[in-house]
Amino acid sequence: MQVVTEVLNTDILIIGGGTAGCLAAVEAREKNPQAEVLIIEKAHIDRSGCLAAGMNAINVYMNPGETPESFVRYVRSDAMGLVREDLVKSMAEEINAAVKRVEEWGLPIKKDPDGKYSPRGRWNIKINGESLKPIIAEAARKSGAKVLNRVIATNYILDGNRVAGAYAFGVRENKFYVINAKATICATGGAAGIYKPNNDGSAHHKMWYCPYDTGAGYAMGIRAGAEMTSFEMRFIALRTKDVISPTGTLALGFGAPQVNAKGEKFMEKRFNHVGGNGAPTPYRVYAPTMEVKEGRGPCYMDTRHLSPQQVHDLKASFLDMYPNVVLFWASNEIDPSKEPIEIQGTEPYLVGGHCQAGYWINTQRETTLTGLYAAGDVAGGAPYKFVSGCWAEGIIAARAAAEYIKSIKPSAVSDEEIEKEKARVFSPIGRHEEVGDGVAPREMEERLQRVMDQYAGGVNSFYEMNEERLQVAKKHLQQLQSQKQYLMASDLHDLMAAHEIIDRVDVAQVLVEHLIYRRETRWPSYQSRLDFPNRDDFHWLKFVNSVCDKTNGGVKIIERPYQQMVSGDRYLPR
User: Fold this and answer.
1) Which segments in the chain show pLDDT lower than 70?
2) How many CB atoms lie within 10 A of CB 201?
3) What are the DSSP calls for 366-394, one per residue?
4) pTM of the model
5) Is 459 a domain residue?
């Protein structure tokens, strides 16, 4: 294959044109109109990332009576006492202004007769958000930012400990990109596909999180030696069975409780001290999982109280973000007012927006690598971001990057380094052409998913794990690392799939090291240790971080202390 090398120069490179990346581009251009801003996006920014299909609510907004401080207290409690309070607070301070900005771009936000935003629960407001992604993508283009669609980043360009841009390749054309940048913002999203999904075969991409968010941003940081945090706090979504549509719409929007096969409201039974749906988020999937394990499944969202008008409104609400559940009900003659909706937990994901796996950053969203910033799902330490928190982090990162580039001169990468990365990137295609025998990306993906499911707390083991099983997972992951050299690809699409599994294996290796190291159970189901079943604030109210050795690939674990910034909660450091 003949591949053209194209060298590009920009002031600010944004990797990932999702919701955080688009807001970062707009903010960077507003703060520094002379700055050249380039977005590279694996798909197309009009419909890319985990919000490509839209949303029916802004899940974080400071409704009347709430403040950034009250939000920090809530998030700290929901995260079982461990959170980067400084990051959550700085994010919360930006959220309402970010929401207002996107509304001005054209996002329809539902309002009551007095013209105030219509709340959905304590922190939510209702929207008609099917076109959310095209709206913010258009704003990014209008800002003057340049966009390269269908281009995949593969590694950072390093100048010592400084990130000086990134390498990438095109999925639709035979191009290898060398992108020199004064500052880089990583906004690539989290990681799906590490664990075996609920749905097999041709439906294996029918999952909660975007199946094309495969951990590239995490993996590039790991390979570059960035400090990462809290990978062991995985996220597992509670969703409707098979269709994997949101249950929050049923619970918050339409008052549907969880019930088991006997009709019992088990959340109230298990968590009477905090009251049913008031349980911390990890328990919302842990409780039905235990009901099934203990023989009282399947479990359901009980929608039988809904009136015909409420059923109509429920379907309309799903059309803003998950229309296929409405089609599924219609094709199977399901009436939510006559039968409850069966639910299940998904496979685990790494998502810094719902949980806190990601880069270890400061309040300006700068990582431990100079010149590299992280925003959205790839940024660690600040869970409960959702869409508006990702907007806020994109804005914060862009402000810092726009200021940083004022004193930075571009640096050039050597021809030797360029050729080395180019050879690595395209070697699967060369291997297919020259050898014709090797490992297909799908084969390695299935092997990874089986290993993680069986030994590292997947859905078929009720998300539970112990030291011995995790050590087996570690052994198999080391074998997979040695087999990446046999990956082959017949075309550019296969090459994309090859790099997706390379990234997933690198991320999984770090994840397992984190799961081994935290010897307690802080977030049931998200992180359930059978051999250490209890939460232990005395020893473990701290962050588990890691740095990968760039020379040998070894993972070094680092402990970072928890620091309380906002008072007024029972979870205190000891």
Assistant:
1) 272-278, 432-436, 567-574
2) 5
3) B-SSBTEEE-GGGB-S----HHHHHHHHH
4) 0.94
5) yes
